[in-house]
Amino acid sequence: GFVDKFTGDGIMALFGAPIAHEDHAQRACYAALHLRDRARQYADELRVSSGINFSVRIGLNSGEVVVGSISDDLRMDYTAQGHTVGLAQRMEGIAPADGIAISQNTQKPVDGYFVTRSLGPMKVKGAREPIEVFVLEGVGTRRTRLDSSRARGLSRFVGRGDEMAALETALNQSLNGTGRVAAMVGEPGVGKSRICAEFVELCRARGLAVYEAHCPAHGKTIPYLPLLELLRNLFGITDQDGPREARQKIAGELALLDDGFADDRALVLEFLGVGDPKAMALQLEPAVLQRRLFAFLRRLIQLRTQGEPIVLLIDDLHWIDPGSDLFVAQIVEAVSATHTLMLVNFRPEYQADWLRKSWVLQLPMTPLSAEALADLVRDWVGSGPSVAKLPALIGARSGGNPFFSEEIVLSLLETGRLAGTRGAYELVRPLDALEVPATVQSLLAARIDRLGEREKHALYAAAVIGKEFSRPLLEAVIAVKGFDLDSALAGLLSAEIIHERAIYPVAEYAFKHPLTHEVALHAQLTAPRQARHKAAALAIEAAEPTRLDELAGMLAHHWSEAGEALRAATWYVRAARWVRNSDMTASQRNWESARKLLLPLPASNERSQLLLEIYPELINLLDRLGAASAESKALFEEGVEFARQAGDRQTESLLAAAYAWLSTGKNDWPAAVNHAEKSIDLADREGHLPVQLFGRFILGRAFAWLGQTAQSISMLEQAKVIGSTFDADNIELLGWRPYVEAMSLRGIMLCWTGRYAESREFEAHLPTLVRRFGTHSD
């Protein structure tokens, strides 16, 4: 198809497709040849019947055009305009009689598919530089794109002998009981992940146990994602295991390692999200929980390697979340005296104190040498005379980056400049200069732009999901009836955009390089990208109903990118609650993300309820994280103003108590007394029992630090009276047990004053509460 535009001196054929793609340019050439042959036939018939002579001239150009509408009351028509159309008209004027002239823009993507004859560079009206013009003479020998039909493997692994030798030395030291950490450091695309993958495969071939964890590009928004993956791998938990099977595997492994792990079993089960539903949930103060998890992980690594050496791989540390990063430091500490090799890789911007440890070996990943790069390129293109200069040209333009180099070769294949088979390619036309996009991003964008619409649709949906994705989730996000997903995935695999990670029990794929994922994500228009994020969120919610707390951060990200701020804020709040007692930094980040999304939204009950929960939680965390006074004060004043506008005096009392507690952490005891008294006054009037207890505990603590012992004991006695009227032990507020804290402090203060008998009233009860809930008093 094309549309005939009859003008006074000829026919203009406008093809309704972006002809920059090879297949569309080929259609145009086929149509032009057919039109030329039909015109010749008609001319012969007309000459015989009436003696009239005429010839046909056709011009083709490829590129982008601006299409506008022309209409009146009776009809609507369309016209194309711009330099691309004007250049096509110039080609028509240049074409020989009964011939077809095509510009270099059309010849480039069809080279090899059609026989063309160059007329040389010509100065064409409207073009600043001379344009090479070709005559289209007929159909060529090629029928399909070689690179799209050939299954290509990975590039040859070259030039990393020194790094592999260093890793082998580190492994041998680890096998001898001197654990090592090997860190591969380098810029994107230099081959960090590739060398790690090659080495762990060698380790597996030697019978060593290898456990992997990966940090996806969005990993910083998902607390503990790589840590949970690593622990599940260490315990042998698969995606097919339900909570019951997971509990059995964890319990069995811990029992085999050490009977002493019995005290940690419930802690580990809950952390992995497979806690026994019949057991009472642990309620530990965050610092206590983190300390116990640190100790458990160090001991697990140490005991795990007593039976057999192990290799740990953590990929892409530069994208790790802060909570998991703290645990990485603990693993590093545990490795030194074990039979463990820990292998990590990251970009130069990643920094950590543990990198200075004596048993940590940093291996900088430099660009490949000219010789190694040449070997890599020759593995692709061969050593024929026509491609002899390619290794040097590609090495110079890529800077020795193996990923960049591979992409250049693939671009040459996809644009038809190379013909043949892998290892034996030939340049089908001379290559004076190697054309490489200014950045890898633009190169990848060009590769993506050359995909078919079906493949693009699948690629964009996959990019929204993440660097790694499963086929079922991708299918759910696309959700187009009759969409041929298998063919789309086959096209992406053939184009080397993605690679297959697993085929059982479900097919899993990953982007070949993170930059491909980033380019594909940001190349999408806003509205369809938002729709895909929404589909991803709904699919994850439906597929993982038992892991929603763990995945809350991911869901919040998808809903935020989908443009649904209120829904995203709800998930950020859920994520903040989930990690409140295990990762204060992640919790604070999630609370703050929810707040920023909610503030610009119009007033609603749901928005108000979320903000009323967020402000006290944020102030409480700012205290623990040591925020600047100006920041905490501004947030407190903002929260109080909002609570007053909402008419919620209970939240106002809680804010005052939280700010009073924050003031104690800054040793601002007058401010602590002032705000604690305000919180008590508001709570007493509102009958808000939790804050009544919390405010009196804070005020009692402030009086104690100010040396006002009698006033301190008086406040704590009031808390005792209030708590005796109901089950105060179970009250939890902002991660605290105010009644337990108050009674603990009361015992201390009575002991200081010599009232030992009274101070022991709570003694028998306190250890049980400490074990059950955890407090600062442990």
Please provide a brief summary of the model.
The protein has 32 helices and 18 strands.
Question: How is this fold's topology laid out?
Answer:
Blueprint lengths: L2 E5 L2 E5 L7 H29 L6 E4 L5 E6 L4 E6 L1 H12 L4 E5 H7 L3 E9 L8 E9 L6 H4 L11 H15 L4 E6 L6 H14 L3 E6 L10 H10 L8 H15 L7 H7 L14 H22 L2 E6 L6 H14 L4 E7 L13 E5 L5 H12 L8 H9 L3 H13 L3 E4 L2 E4 L12 H10 L3 H13 L2 E3 H8 L6 H10 L3 E5 L5 E4 L2 H9 L3 H18 L8 H10 L3 H14 L5 H15 L6 H21 L3 H18 L2 H17 L3 H18 L2 H17 L3 H15 L14 H15 L3 H4 L6 H8 L5
Parallel strand pairs: 3-6, 9-12, 9-13, 10-11, 11-12
Antiparallel strand pairs: 1-2, 4-5, 6-8, 7-8, 14-15, 16-18, 17-18
Number of E strands: 18
Strand order of the largest sheet: 10-11-12-9-13
Helix content: 40-55%
Main sheet attributes: strand count, strand direction, barrel closure: 5 strands, parallel
What ranges have pLDDT less than 50 throughout 5 or more consecutive residues? 1-22, 66-80, 143-152
Shape: elongated
**Distance N terminus to C terminus?**
80 Å
Rg? 35 Å
Q: Give the mean pLDDT.
A: 83
Strand-residue proportion: 5-15%
- SS element count, helices: 32
- Secondary structural class: alpha/beta
How would you describe this protein?
Strand 1 (about 5) and strand 2 form a beta hairpin. It contains 32 helices and 18 strands. With about 775 residues, the chain is an alpha/beta fold. Residues about 1-20, about 65-80 and about 145-150 have low confidence and may be disordered. The N and C termini lie far apart (about 80 Å). Strands 10-11-12-9-13 form a 5-stranded parallel β-sheet, with helices on both faces. A 4-stranded mixed β-sheet has the order 3-6-8-7.
